[in-house]
Structure formats: structure tokens, C-alpha cells
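User: Fold this; C-alpha cells only.

Assistant: Input:
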Amino acid sequence: MTLGRSGRERPGLQHAQVRCGGGLLSDPRGCLVDHLGWLPVAGADGPREVSLREALVYAHTFTGLLPDMPTMLPVLLRQVLVPVVLDALGDVDADVWAQMMATAAFTTEQRAAIDRYLDEHVGRFNVLDSAAPFGQAAGLEHPGGKVHPVSVLMPHVATGNNTPLWDSRLVSDPVPLSLGAATRWMLHAQCWDTAAIKTAAVDDPQVKAGKTTGNRTGPLGKLGVVTLLGRSLFETIVLNLPQGRRQAGDRPHWDRPPMGPSWRTRPPEGILDLFTWQERRIRLVTEESQGDDVVQVRWVVLSAGDRIDGPQADDPHTCWTIKADKTRGSIRYPRRHMPGLTGWQGLDALLTIDRDSAGYETSALIMQTAAATLMGDLPTDYPLRAATCGLVYGTQDSIVSDVLSDEVPLPVGALRSDLAVRSSVTLVCEQAQALARAVDHLAANLLRAVGGEPPARGKGQQPGTKLLHTLDPLVRRFLTGCQRNPSDDELDKAHKAFEALAERAARAAAEELLHRLPGTAFTGRTVTRKDRGKTVTTTYQQASAERFFNSAVRKALTHLYPQTAPSEETAA
């Protein structure tokens, strides 16, 4: 064992060189390509961790990735799997994309190209390499020899001022991670790390007073990430392959000069550069467990990394909000996920293939999937799914407050404006939310009838939220049924069945509110207020509250009540 600058023991790593692929490895235990099982996958024989080569060559045999937490899924795709495939096979156009989805596996030629690529770059995929360790800055040190517990890479584990969960483990005694797990969390930090102050690094010329300020969150922290999922790991990789010609000079970080402690602000040079962006400078402090030859990680050095110059306007893994500006025209903002909302509550944005008056635009990956569906390259009964995830940061983005994630069926037919399933899917999601609003309005009017005032919007527990939880499995069942490409008649019957169950749930929620009412709600109360200089008198009673609720329900459920007149609530 040897000592690092921090004074902690580190493995000497005195292993003979071993040939792997097309290169020599000083320590094969850190080889991500062949020797180290580190990518968690679901296979026919259950969950397992496989090497990078096995994950790609046999991707069609795995049902998908099994990430440590939902935010890890886009990390493994963006940081490793998709860039390797894209760089090894070259530009992917619509025809190549369609061929890959049709074969549902890499062809012999494609597997050979991936093998050659991994052999050529195997030396840069070694986590334990002394000169260019994968994803790290070799020799990275804090001026005072300070190291962080490995939990600093993990947003769900308490460390320092980031305490999302109660944790009895002391910071001075972190739980060691296997080398494969530490590598995954290192990549996760590159994508999602918190902002604010980072510790200094030796030989970093931009350090001030032993620290760097103005650090931003990882690139994915600014987005509402949407990842497309297929029937296998192979199809998931293809669904997340951006189509188009690559920009000149676009390369992943393992095809660039090894990183040092110095960082810079610059624009991404292309999709490979963006996907493998190094937002932090990190070094894993490795050690060997007692009595065996297993490498583990208990400590890390983490400092500032490269910063993206300007907005991430071309990221294909997020939807967008379009706003008009008098001087700059239309401006696109990443559409982040909102706490408390399910994935299907944002389905209108996912299905907005073209900019419209709604002010949304879906992700580039969903757009190219929609184009493939329109061209007949993807069948309308394909079981596509959308996985949404995001982090909620607090206190100037320096801590993690919440983790958001969901997975919803995304009917391929809904990506086509010429099919009835699109409008039906959108309507079902709108109806569920309309019923929740109707229950909330009923609760507010009943509270006013007994002399109270409803809480401010967004404050307190709303009864409509409880109803949405009841309706959630009904909406998901409807979306799953729409994936089978139903006929118009089948779609109409399914929609009526959904409305019948949704109405029953909404009226049960209303009955629960009415059951708790005191007798004073029947007579109600009269409130007088000023509105635009006029005196307005309003009487709140149980009867009027129920009437408005019934009107809102009939207006929302258009299949059960097709002849419903305009809502009295709206008229009032």
C-alpha cells in the first residue's frame, strides 16, 4: 500500500501489464470494457452487472438497465452507451435508425465495428489507469490533502449540508462502494451534481481563497429529462440515438486529451461532447479490502469542472416551453418536471410535435420517433414508454430537496395527428385533471358555506390530489390499452368505460366531503365584496356548490354527457 497526499493508504496497484483488446492495461481490475462488471442490467437469468462490451454486444438479450435510482438511467445512456454506439457506427440517419429497430439487434458488421472501437479505446476505459483514469482527473488533489466521503457523489445519502434523508452513518466513516458502483455514481455526479462552492484543486489557476464559486448544477439538473424505453436494452439505446450529421470536432471525453485540474467555460462541440460533458473534476481514492484483491472506494476528491457556455438549446432529452420575446423572438426554455405531478399530467407537452399556441415543444428524440411512425418505420402498436426524472434543488441549488421520477406508457399512435388515439389520449389526461379541479372547487365552496376560507393555491392538501391518485391507475390502463392500436370503435368503448369509472371515483370523493358537513352549510352565508368599483353579493350554499360540481363533471365527461350545455360554474 502507498500513501496519498491526504495521508490515507492507497493501493500500490503493482500489477503486471495485461493485454486487453488492442491495448495494454497496467491494472485490468479497472477495465470497464471487459474485466469489470459495472453496468446493471435485467436479463433472462435475473439482474446482473456486466462489462461495457457485454452490455452492447448482447444488448438485445437484456430487457433494460436496472439503475440504482431513476436519475441514473439517462446517465448510463448519455455518458457511455449511446456515445460509444454513435461514435463507433458513425452518423445515424432515419434509414439506419429504422433498420436497427427492424432487426432489433446489432448486425454482424455493427458488432464488429463496436468491438474494434472498444479495442481501440480500451486504455481510456480503465478506472484505475495512472495517467488517464476513466472519467477522472489523474492526480487531482486538494491543497490541504482534503478528501470527501464517496457519499458526496450520491444525492440520496446525507453528507455535509446535503441531508435529503436521515442517516446515522458518520461522515468520517463512509460505507465503501465497489469500484463499479463508484464509477456509476461518479458519472451521476457529472450529470446531476449540486451547484455552489467546490473545493480547490492543486494547479487550478482559477481557484480563489481555496475554493471555486459560481459552479452550476450538472447539465441534467437544468432539464426535465425524458428517456424513451423500448422492449430491450438494444431498442432503448436506439430510441435514444440522436439522428443527424455530427459536427466537426465532436468527440467524447475518452477521445480527448486526459483532463487536468484546470477547467474552462466553452460551448459543446456536438452531441458526443454534450452527452459526456465533464461538469466536475473527480478522482476516486481507491483502496483494497482486507484479505482479498477487491478494489473499493471510500473517499473521493471533487472540484470544479467545465461549464457550458450559454443555454443547452440542443439537448434532445427534454421538452421545451416556448415564449415570445419582443426583441429576441421565440425563446425555448427546458421544461422541468413539477413536484407532485405524474408523467401523464405533462403528456400534452410530450405529444406536442410542432410548436403551437400551447407554447410547448416535445423532445427531439420523440420528434424523430414520431417521424418514424409516420413513415411506417415504427408500428403503431409498439410498446413505447417514457421515463421522466429530475432533481429538485434547494438553497441556491446547493442541496437536493427531492427526486422526481415516473414511467408512463406512450402510445405511438398518439404521436400521429391523423389518428383518433392522439386526441383521445390527450382528452383522458385532461378529464382526470378537470375532475380533480371540480372536487377542489367543491371543497372550497363548501368551506366558504360554513364560514371558512380555502387555503391559498398550492398550500395544504387538496382533495383533488387524492382523487388523482385514485384515477392514476385508470389513466395508465387506458394509455396501455391505446398502445395496442385499437380501432375507433374499441377506442370509443374504452373511453366511455374510463369516464364511467372516473365519474364514480369523483362522486365518491364529493360524497366524502358532503358527509362531513355541518348543518350550517345548508343555509350557507352571504359575502359582500368590491369588484372593479361595484358591490358584488355572493351566497355560498351546499346546494349551489353541488350544482356547480355536477355541472363541471358533466362538462368534463364528454362521452357520457355529449349534449351537456355550458357549465353553470363557468357562466357564474
